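Sample 1 of the test manifest.
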Amino acid sequence: MLIGSIGIVGLLLIWQLCSMNGGSSNLLPSPITVFERGIELFANGTMGKHIGVSMLRVVKGFAVAFALALPCGLIIGTNKTVNRALSPLIELLRPIPPTAMISLSILWFGIGEPSKVFIIAWASFFPMVLNIIGGVQQVDRIHILAAKTLGAGYFSIFTNVILRSAVPNIVIGMRNGFSMAFISLVAAELIASTSGIGYFIQDARYLYKIVDVFVGIIVIGLIGFLINMILLKAEKALIRWK
Amino acid sequence: MRNEFFLEVSCLTVAFPKVDGKPGEMTKVLNGLNLTIPENQFVCVLGPSGCGKTTLLNCVAGFQKFDGDILFKGSPICGPAPERGVMFQEYGLFPWFNIQQNVEFGPRMKHMPRDKRREIADTYIDMVGLSAYRKQYPNHLSGGMKQRVSLARVLANEPEFLLMDEPFAALDEQTRQKLQTELLNVWEKNKITCMFITHSISEAVFLADRVIVLMPNPGRVALDMLIDVPRMRDRNDPALLQYQEQISEVLFSGRK
Ligand SMILES: Nc1ncnc2c1ncn2[C@@H]1O[C@H](COP(=O)(O)OP(=O)(O)OP(=O)(O)O)[C@@H](O)[C@H]1O
Ligand SMILES: [Mg+2]
C-alpha cells in the first residue's frame, strides 16, 4: 500500500514543480488547482452527471457485447467445425480499432446513442469472445469422462462441466472486455455528444479550459482504476475453488 | 442367480501410434486379450508399469476405442455409463464443486430429491472420514483426501461394476487399510463387482477373489489365479503370503 503510492506521489511532486517553473504558461496547471476545480465540478453536480451518462453507455455497450460474445464463444469453443470456419474471420476483425469504426457507425446508426453503444460493444466483444472460446476449449477430458460415468447427459455435461470449467476464463474475458469498453468510451463520445466524460474533455479543449481537461482525464483514470479493482475482487470471489 | 458372464472380454486389442515412430506406425498395447469376470467377483489386476492396465480399464469403462468385443451383461459396451463406475488414477474430481457437491453429482444426475441425495452423500463422506471437509474444494485437499472423495463419489452413484485404477496408491498405510475394509464392506453389502488395479501384491491378495497379472509387449494375461481364502481375511494369514510369493515369481520373472 505504502510502496505502491511512491509512484503516484512522485508524479504529483514533479507535476507541482513543473507547473511552478512553467510560470505564466497556462498549459500545465498545478495539481492543487486541478484538485480544487475537481471538487468544484463534483460539488455542483456537473461531473456526476457526465460520469452517469458515460457509465450508462459503457454498461450498455458492454452488455450488448457480452450478450453476443457468450453464445458465440460457447458455440465456437465447443464445435471444432464452427471454430475452423469462424476463427479467421475473428482474427481479421479483431485488430480493427474502435476509432476506425466511428465513421461506419455514424453511417449505420446515426449520431445518437446507438452508434456510441456500437463502438463500445465493438471494442469489448473481441477480448470476451476469445477468452470464452479459450475457456471452453481447455476443459479437461477427464472431467467430461467422469461426468459421463456418473450419468450426465450432454446438457448436464455442458452446464456442469464445460461451462463451469470455463468460468475463470469467462470472468477474465469480462474484465478485459470491460476495460476495452471503458477505453473506447472517449472515442465513442467523439460522435456528436452533448454529455459524458469524453464530451466534457473535448468541450473543455474547445473552450480552452485546460484545468477541466486535466480534471476529466484524471476522473477517467480513477474510474477505470476503481472498476478494475472491483472486477478483480469479483473474479476472486467467483473462482474461490482455483 | 450369479451371472457367470457379467463381463466378457474377447480378443481385445488396442494399438497406439508409436512414440517417435513414422506416421501410421502402431504399437499394440493389448493383443487379443480374453477375460471373463462373473458377477460379484473382486478382481485385482497387477502388472509392471506400462503393461496396459489402465488401457484395459479404459476400454471396459467405455473411454477407449478398441478392436475385439467387450460384453457387459451380454450387451456390447458403447461409451461410459453410470452402471460402470470409475475411480480415476488422477482423481477426476470437479474442482469447481465442493466435496459435497462432487459426491452428490451422481444422485443429482438421477434427479434424486435434494434431501435424499444429501443423505447419501453424507453417508459416504462420513465413511471416508471427511465430514469436516464437506464444504472444501478439491484443490484445497491433499492427494490422499482427494482419492477418498473420489471413492465416496463413485460409491454414492451405486454402480454395478466398480472400476478402480490404483485408488489407494497415494494413501498412508493406516488410511489405506481402513478404506480397503470399507470397500470390502460396500462390495459385500451392495453385491457389486470390482476390477481393481494396483501395484501392491499384498493389497491384491488381501482384497481379491482373483488376481490377474498382465505382462507387457504386448499386454497379455500372464497369471490368472483365484485367492481361495475366506473373508474377513487376516492380513498376516500365511496362506495369503503364499499367494503373494507365487504372484511375485510371475511378476519378476519377466524382468530379468
Ligand atoms: N493415449 C495414448 N497414446 C499413446 N500411447 C499410449 C496412450 N495411452 C497409453 N499409451 C501407452 O500404452 C502403454 C500402456 O499404458 P497404460 O496406461 O495402460 O499402462 P499401465 O499399465 O496403466 O501403467 P501404470 O502402472 O504406470 O499406470 C504405455 O506404454 C503407454 O505409453
Ligand atoms: Mg495406469
